[in-house]
UniProtKB/TrEMBL annotation:
It is found in: Nucleus. Pfam families: EVE. InterPro entries: 5hmC_binding, EVE_domain, PUA-like_sf, THYN1-like_EVE. This is Thymocyte nuclear protein 1. Keywords: Nucleus, Phosphoprotein. It comes from Campylorhamphus procurvoides. Residues 1-62 are annotated as: Disordered. Residues 10-28 have a biased composition (Basic and acidic residues). Residues 73-235 form the EVE domain. Specifically binds 5-hydroxymethylcytosine (5hmC), suggesting that it acts as a specific reader of 5hmC. One of its GO terms (cellular component) is nucleus. Residues 41-52 have a biased composition (Low complexity). The keyword Endoplasmic reticulum does not apply.
Amino acid sequence: MPWPSRKRDKGAVADKKEPDAKIAKTEEETSDQEEEEKSAKPPAGSSKSGWKNWKKAKESESGGEESKITYCHWLLKSEPESRLEKGVDVKFSVDDLKAQPNQTTCWDGVRNYQARNFLRAMKLGQQAFFYHSNCKEPGIVAIVKIVKEAYPDHTQFDQKDPHYDSTSRKENPKWSMVDVQFVRMTKRFIPLSELKAHHLAHKADGGPLKDMMLFTRQRLSIQPLTQEQFDFVLSLEEERPH
C-alpha cells in the first residue's frame, strides 16, 4: 500500500502564520513545459559567512577561510494535519514517519519540475530538515537523512492515487522520489516566525538566511540549503526561543 503523499507543489497555499510573506505564483500558473525549461540542478555558489556571534564562531573554526559551497542539505515540507486530496488524506507528520518500519519511507507525490530535480540531486546520506507545513504553527521539527537516491515515483502510475499522471510512461517516468529515514527530533521546535525574523535581519546585513528558499520560493515542497544555512538553522537549537 503506498505511503501517504507529501505533495504540496501545485495549488499550494502559503504557510499559515506568515501574513507578511509575498504570495508567490502557484506552480499551476506556469506550464509544465516552461517549468521543465526553467528547472535545473541545484545551483552552486558561494555565500557570505554567518551572522553576529554565529559568524565569529564559524570564522574561528575555519581560520577565517571561505570556500565555495553547493546546496548539500535540504528542507522537506509535509503536512501534519488532515487534508483530503481527491478523497485521500495527505497528512504525514514526523510521528507518522517515526511509526514506519525502520522509521523510513518514500517521499512521493512531488509534481513540480524544480522540486523533482532537487529530489534527483539528493545524495545518499545527506541530511534534511523535516518541516511541518500548512498547519497552525509551521516550522522545523526533526532531521532526516536520504537513504535511497531518486527512483521512479510509483504513485504516478496508480490510477487510484491523487497524484496519478496519465501522461507519464513507465519507460520514461516523469516523476521521482527518494527514501528518507528519521534521524532525530530537533532539540526544540524552530518555528517559521523565528526563521523569518532571521531571514529579514540577514537580508539587511548579508547573513546566511538572506536567500533561503523558504522565503524566496516558499511554495516549493522540496528546498535546498547551503551548508551555512543548514549550520545556522541547526545552531538555533541551542538558543532560547524569542
